[in-house]
Amino acid sequence: AEKMAAPGPGEYFSVGSSVSCLTCLGQRLQGEVVAFDYQTKMLTLSILFLGSPPSVPPPVCGTETARLTEMCLAEVGFPFSSFFYEFRRSTLNNAAECASSSGKPNLSDVILVNLAYVSEVDIINDRSETPPPLASLNVSKLANRARTEKEDKLSQAYAISAGVSVDGQQLFQTIHKTIKDCKWQEKNIIVMDDVVISPPYQVENCKGKEGSALSHIRKIVEKHFRDVESQKSMQRSQAQQTQKDSSLSS
């Protein structure tokens, strides 16, 4: 798809207006305008509808991998992530039609849309009145969160580029939720510089000085794979029940 022409003088988007965009990958975005920067042609939307991009393969392990895939594509210059960056846990009042990625009903996802990679823009409802004042923001807290998110995503991107298995990636995420001092060293997970977890990332692959730290990490690993197996078992049962119900109805 070709890049659309940059907006000319006077072609602005009013805060509060409802806008629908079609990206160069055929993904439909619809949301309420939060902000628009004319110089960079960046449109900020509170998402009301976010369609699936047909040109991007489905995620292999949930929404986190989907976001990671987007970021990795951006690293190689792929246009999809050039215009998609997610700010989670943003408090907005008028975007309840699309659930936030955090799952919390009082929050909404906000994305930045690079109009250079949008082939079509439609204004559904143009708002002309003065928008309400913006809520106060803790800029320092947001900057810290952005830095942490960036470091996390770069760490995940490294794991993918190093050929780490899905099991390894998922285990890393589980450990990192409670222990931030967790990093990759080639395909090994290093926790607190004391414990090394090597492929295939089972309890017996946790090595380090015997003590409370190693014991704690082993318990996390054991519980992680127990939960994964429990989830797989539940999915298999649901699939079998669905197949059984389908057979009975036919």
Furnish the topology, listing elements before pairings.
Elements: E1 18-23, E2 28-37, E3 42-50, H1 63-75, H2 79-82, E4 86-90, E5 108-114, E6 118-125, H3 139-161, H4 166-178, E7 182-185, E8 188-191, E9 195-197, E10 206-208, H5 212-249
Antiparallel strand pairs: 1-2, 1-6, 2-3, 3-5, 4-5, 7-8, 8-9, 9-10
Helix content: 25-40%
Strand ordering within the main sheet: 4-5-3-2-1-6
The major β-sheet equals:
6 strands, antiparallel
- Number of E-state strands: 10
Which residue ranges are poorly predicted, with pLDDT under 50 across at least 5 consecutive positions?
Answer: 1-10, 55-96
Q: How are helices and strands ordered from N to C? A: EEEHHEEEHHEEEEH
Please give the radius of gyration in angstroms. Answer: 22 Å
The fraction of residues in strands falls at: 15-25%
3D architecture notes:
The protein is 36% helix and 24% strand. It has 250 residues and is an alpha+beta fold. It starts with 17 loop residues before the first strand and ends with a helix. The model is unreliable at 1-10 and 55-96 (pLDDT under 50).
Can you give keywords for this protein?
alpha+beta, 36% helix, disordered N terminus, 6-stranded antiparallel β-sheet, 4-stranded antiparallel β-sheet
Question: Care to give the gist of this entry?
Answer:
The chain has helices spanning 63-75, 79-82, 139-161, 166-178, 212-249, and strands spanning 18-23, 28-37, 42-50, 86-90, 108-114, 118-125, 182-185, 188-191, 195-197, 206-208. The protein has 250 residues and is of the alpha+beta class.
